[in-house]
């Protein structure tokens, strides 16, 4: 929840709260004041430019660290620009409430000397002590008043630790070896509680009431108060709220047909303090280059939005986001256009020179490109992939694509724009006359690169993508390169996740364990990925996933179907009680250390519930669980109600265990229902 | 219009006024100004230092026979080291841009995360690329480690790409069209070496000989490092600077072999390790030697 932003007119000199009419204040604040909680707290950590992508997480972390101080407050708001992390809390008390602390002393029966000693230690008279009844008898005790501490002092003590405790993925030191670490040097700190400075020092910087404006448009030092802070920044060309900056960028681009790019937008929101879009153009003859290349240059290398024409095709235009107010002389537009022209010229140069050697003629060059030291070259990988593509049922097109798909690693364009690997190969294969299924498969073979990314576009492309990923996984696990924690240099998790998605969503009923091979670690790794996929991505409950996987996960399409059945069954009235019965069955079998197989001997069945259960089993065996669950449940309930499994006669006992075992087997074809968590 | 050399002179003047020693280029081939002893060795140890110099930097693989308007085998870097980095180091850097006539209120400037790392030097730092109207004009780095050693004082390293900066100011699309001095274009001054070194590095360099040279220089560096004795009373005399020259020779030979296509990806890692081992060895010995020198200085 975002608390309302206070937009106040800058007031100088600082308003006297006693006389100044306060029209635009928050309700919470007014309420807070009534209860004696009325302080605003402002913390601004002024730094050199923080990497954009780290900022949102750092703010969340700052929020947590502040909340750990357990200071009462009505609301909290966090903001940031590249040069400042800001926390504002409203409704803090000046002082924490006084508390009473009970100190227990000697027993009533203790000598007077001991009681006097206890009182003396507390600085009170023995008469001030009270007698208190406890479970162990009566004891002297004293109610000590602990006065609430001033919040300013608490903050002054805690803030240096809070600030330096903010987590960043990579930190630096700057004051000298052994000095404090932060993401970038801290250059100023504003810390105000109401009108007062909260005094402390971090990394040689003393807290104060001086902020800083925009690097080029604002003043280097601006005096601020907790209430005029945001407006003062705005006067000095700093828009504090990321939402406002985002809104400004979006609204000012509204009239231009910009290709939607939320990730790029976020980057620019946190790369600017005063964003402003500017439109530039490029020579339409560059449009002869593939859009993918042009967009990559604009997006990844220049952080420009690309622009479409009315038909959705790329237009010879771009939008750059400046970190300044205007470009009256056109310097900025022309500068950006010139940089883009040089980049496009480079790309064209690489494109043209790459055409001198066809993709298929580059295959021998792959012998010199190492895939991984222990796994040999990309030439060897390509050959393994060709075999795999064939094994996976790929046609001649799939095998051809597997043969060529790594050849673009030797092209200049991919060396320059590595993020275009695969895509460039596909584009080259197309212009060099490879059949459509072949170039498409090359183009798509790295897909899906994330959970949101689309699958390769057709069956041939999916087979090639599977071959690539499976080869990488088998190879890396084979030489002991197993991802641990955050270390996953070959992106094996992504590869395995891609395999799972292609198999499930591409409806490939391939035997997964054959694809994985005999490696135990790889199998466990896949088990995790399959669980993660169905649980976190597809939203099945964890016990449903466990239950269905316990009944087998070698065919992921089948697993998905079973999960959907269990999910549909779950709300039906007989499901949970039956699951509870299966848990009971499992426990009984485990306790009896039962291991099959043998067959139920009908002659040993007792007439009544036991016989009825067996008869029911014979009737429903082989039928889908959906139609049998309602019939079976009462029989099982009755069985457990009336029949003692642990019969004195060993033969009968074994026969009963066998009956339960048989039932469990029959039902476990869909899922092991004993894995379902029940609430009964 | 300011010429290439005027821009260089103004920047040197600016940094001289801020207490920098103005050094001349180092006289051994290097891939970047960072590799010069004035940076690599001076950032080590507890002594403050400020220095600025233009360093011709050779990147054999970037050669384009003088055809590509933006890529050069050899380009000129202005390297500034402020050790330790002053609190207003970014403002000082921005001031240097104003000093060469860039009115920052008329331009767009962004500092974008770019952490620098030189595996062959065991060096890395945290910083940004400085983007002016979408063009990367400088690299700004707070050094953290050099030769595998945590630095006592954190220096700021400012590296200006002088050709780019000049092309920007002179509004030229090709580096060869920029004016070096009135009447002399960059192309006139430099085109021949771009062409000839590209031919040499890509086509003619004798791979066997280059490897032999690499081994020889490596052998000499290693021999010297083995001879260095931290306990020797006169260790101040020990030629660590010449040992470091051998490392620089190896580094340039490695780059040339790489451009020549003579190093496979697998070998690459190994060769980088070899150079790194020498560089780290020199850095460690240097810290030891300078520590002794500083102690001797105090004693006197």
Descriptive report:
The complex is a heterodimer of chains A (680) and B (300). Chain A has 24 helices and 19 strands. With 680 residues, chain A is an alpha+beta fold. Chain A folds into five domains: 27-95 and 151-235, no CATH class; 99-146, no CATH class; 256-354, no CATH class; 359-508, Orthogonal Bundle (Hypothetical protein af1432), CATH 1.10.3210; 572-675, Isoleucyl-tRNA Synthetase, Domain 1 (Orthogonal Bundle), CATH 1.10.730. In chain A, strands 1, 2, 3, 9, 10, 11 and 12 form a seven-stranded mixed beta sheet that branches. In chain A, a hairpin with a 3-residue loop joins strand 18 (370-372) and strand 19 (376-377). The longest helix of chain B has 35 residues, at 265-299. The termini of chain B are far apart. Helix content of chain B is 44%, strand content 22%. Chain B is globular. Chain B has helices spanning 4-17, 37-40, 89-99, 162-170, 186-204, 207-227, 240-259, 265-299; strands spanning 21-22, 49-58, 74-83, 109-113, 116-118, 123-132, 135-146, 149-150, 156-161, 179-181, 184-185. With 300 residues, chain B is of the alpha+beta class. Chain A binds chain B through residues 48-49, 51-52, 82, 170, 172-177, 184-185, 187, 215-217, 220, 271-272, 302, 304, 320, 322-324, 327-329, 331-332, 334-336, 338-342, 345-346, 349, 368-370, 373, and chain B through 68-71, 84-85, 87, 90-91, 94, 104-113, 115, 125-126, 128, 132-135, 142, 144, 150-154, 168, 171, 173, 264-266, 269.
Strand-helix topology:
The complex is a heterodimer of chains A (680) and B (300).
Chain A: H1 27-34, E1 39-47, H2 55-67, E2 75-81, E3 84-92, E4 99-107, H3 112-122, E5 130-134, E6 137-146, H4 151-165, E7 172-173, E8 181-182, E9 186-193, E10 196-197, E11 201-202, E12 205-208, E13 210-211, E14 222-223, H5 229-235, H6 242-252, H7 262-269, E15 276-281, H8 291-301, E16 305-308, E17 314-322, H9 331-354, E18 370-372, E19 376-377, H10 378-391, H11 396-404, H12 412-416, H13 423-431, H14 436-444, H15 459-478, H16 492-505, H17 512-516, H18 520-537, H19 542-550, H20 556-569, H21 575-591, H22 609-620, H23 625-642, H24 650-667
Parallel strand pairs in A: 9-12
Antiparallel strand pairs in A: 1-3, 1-9, 2-3, 4-6, 5-6, 7-8, 9-10, 11-12, 13-14, 15-17, 16-17, 18-19
Helix pairs in contact in A: 6-7, 8-9, 10-11, 10-15, 11-14, 11-15, 13-14, 14-15, 15-16, 16-18, 19-20, 21-23, 21-24, 22-23
Chain B: H1 4-17, E1 21-22, H2 37-40, E2 49-58, E3 74-83, H3 89-99, E4 109-113, E5 116-118, E6 123-132, E7 135-146, E8 149-150, E9 156-161, H4 162-170, E10 179-181, E11 184-185, H5 186-204, H6 207-227, H7 240-259, H8 265-299
Parallel strand pairs in B: 1-2
Antiparallel strand pairs in B: 2-3, 3-9, 4-6, 5-6, 6-7, 7-8, 7-9, 10-11
Helix pairs in contact in B: 6-7, 6-8, 7-8
């Amino acid at each position: 929840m975002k608390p309302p932003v206070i937009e106040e007119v800058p007031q100088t000199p600082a308003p006297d709260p006693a006389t100044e009419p306060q029209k635009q204040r928050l309700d919470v604040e007014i309420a807070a004041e009534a209860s004696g909680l009325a302080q605003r707290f402002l913390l601004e950590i002024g730094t050199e430019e923080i990497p954009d992508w780290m900022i949102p997480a750092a703010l969340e972390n700052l929020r947590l660290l502040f909340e750990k101080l357990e200071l009462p407050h009505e609301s909290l708001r966090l903001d940031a620009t590249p040069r400042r992390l800001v926390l504002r809390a409203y409704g803090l008390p000046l002082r924490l409430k006084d508390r009473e602390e009970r100190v227990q002393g000697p027993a009533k029966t203790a000598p007077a000397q001991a009681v006097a000693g206890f009182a003396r230690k507390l600085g009170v008279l023995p008469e001030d002590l009270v007698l208190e009844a406890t479970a162990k008898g009566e004891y002297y005790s004293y109610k000590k008043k602990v006065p609430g501490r001033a919040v300013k002092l608490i903050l002054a003590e805690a803030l240096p630790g809070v600030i330096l405790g903010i987590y960043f993925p990579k930190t630096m030191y700057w004051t000298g070896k052994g000095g404090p670490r932060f993401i970038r040097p801290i250059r100023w700190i504003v810390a105000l509680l109401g009108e007062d400075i909260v005094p402390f020092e971090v990394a040689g910087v003393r807290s104060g009431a001086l902020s800083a404006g925009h690097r080029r448009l604002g003043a280097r030092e601006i005096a601020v108060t907790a209430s005029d802070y945001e407006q003062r920044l705005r006067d000095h060309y700093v828009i504090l709220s990321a939402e406002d900056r985002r809104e400004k960028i979006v609204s000012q681009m509204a009239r231009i047909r910009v290709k939607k790019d939320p990730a790029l937008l976020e980057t620019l929101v946190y790369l600017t303090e005063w964003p402003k879009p500017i439109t530039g153009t490029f020579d339409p003859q560059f449009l002869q280059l593939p859009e993918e290349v042009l967009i990559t240059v604009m997006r990844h290398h220049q952080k420009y939005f690309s622009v479409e024409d009315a038909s959705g095709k790329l237009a010879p235009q771009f939008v750059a986001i400046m970190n300044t107010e205007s470009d009256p002389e056109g310097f900025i537009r022309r500068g950006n256009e010139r940089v883009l022209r040089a980049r496009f010229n480079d790309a064209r140069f690489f494109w043209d020179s790459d055409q001198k050697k066809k993709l298929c003629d580059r295959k021998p060059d792959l012998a010199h490109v190492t895939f991984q030291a222990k796994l040999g070259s990309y030439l060897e990988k390509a050959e393994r992939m060709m075999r795999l593509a064939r094994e996976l049922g790929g046609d001649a097109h799939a095998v051809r694509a597997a043969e060529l798909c790594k050849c673009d690693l030797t092209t200049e364009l991919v060396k320059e724009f590595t993020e275009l690997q695969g895509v460039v190969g596909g584009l080259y294969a197309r212009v060099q006359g490879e059949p459509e299924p072949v170039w498409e498969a090359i183009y798509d073979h790295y897909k899906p690169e994330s959970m949101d990314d689309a699958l390769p576009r057709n069956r041939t492309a999916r087979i090639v993508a599977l071959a690539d990923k499976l080869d990488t996984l088998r190879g890396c696990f084979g030489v002991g390169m197993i991802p641990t924690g955050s270390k996953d240099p070959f992106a094996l998790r992504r590869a395995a996740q891609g395999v799972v998605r292609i198999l499930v969503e591409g409806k490939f009923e391939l035997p997964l364990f054959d694809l994985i091979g005999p490696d135990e670690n790889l199998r466990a790794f896949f088990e995790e990925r399959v669980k993660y996929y169905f649980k976190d991505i597809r939203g099945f409950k964890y016990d449903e996933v466990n239950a269905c996987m316990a009944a087998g996960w070698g065919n992921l399409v089948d697993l998905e179907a079973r999960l959907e059945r269990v999910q549909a069954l779950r709300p039906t009235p007989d499901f949970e009680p039956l699951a509870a019965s299966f848990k009971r069955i499992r426990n009984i079998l485990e306790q009896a250390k039962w291991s099959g197989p043998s067959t139920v001997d009908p002659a040993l069945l007792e007439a009544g519930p036991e016989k009825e259960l067996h008869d029911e089993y014979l009737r429903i065996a082989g039928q889908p669980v959906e139609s049998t669950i309602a019939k079976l449940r009462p029989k099982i309930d009755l069985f457990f109600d009336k029949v003692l499994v642990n019969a004195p006669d060993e033969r009968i006992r074994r026969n009963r265990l066998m009956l339960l075992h048989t039932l469990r087997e029959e039902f476990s074809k869909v899922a092991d229902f004993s894995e379902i968590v029940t609430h009964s | 219009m300011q010429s290439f050399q005027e821009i260089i002179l103004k920047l040197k003047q600016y940094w001289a006024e801020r207490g920098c020693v103005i050094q001349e280029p180092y006289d051994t081939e290097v891939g970047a100004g960072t590799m010069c002893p004035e940076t690599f060795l001076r950032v080590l140890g507890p002594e403050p230092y400020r220095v600025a110099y233009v360093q011709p930097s050779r990147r054999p693989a970037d050669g384009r026979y003088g055809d590509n308007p933006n890529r050069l085998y050899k380009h000129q870097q202005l390297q500034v080291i402020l050790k330790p980095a002053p609190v207003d180091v970014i403002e000082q850097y921005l001031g240097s841009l104003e000093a060469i006539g860039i009115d920052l209120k008329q331009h767009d400037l962004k500092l974008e995360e770019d952490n620098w790392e030189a595996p062959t030097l065991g060096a890395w730092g945290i910083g940004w690329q400085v983007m002016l109207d979408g063009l990367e004009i400088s690299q700004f780095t707070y050094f953290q480690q050099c030769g595998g050693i945590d630095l006592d004082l954190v220096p700021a390293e400012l590296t200006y790409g002088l050709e780019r900066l000049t092309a920007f100011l002179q509004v030229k699309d090709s580096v060869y069209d920029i004016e070096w001095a009135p009447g002399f274009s960059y192309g006139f001054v430099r085109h021949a070496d771009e062409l000839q070194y590209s031919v040499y590095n890509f086509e003619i360099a004798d791979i066997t000989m280059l490897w032999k040279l690499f081994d020889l220089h490596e052998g000499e560096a290693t021999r010297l490092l083995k001879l260095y004795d931290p306990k020797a009373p006169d260790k101040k005399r020990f030629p660590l600077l010449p040992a470091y020259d051998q490392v620089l020779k190896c580094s340039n030979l490695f780059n040339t072999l790489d451009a020549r296509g003579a190093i496979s990806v697998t070998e690459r890692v190994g060769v980088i390790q070899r150079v790194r081992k020498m560089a780290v060895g020199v850095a460690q010995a240097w810290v030891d030697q300078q520590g002794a020198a500083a102690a001797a200085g105090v004693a006197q």
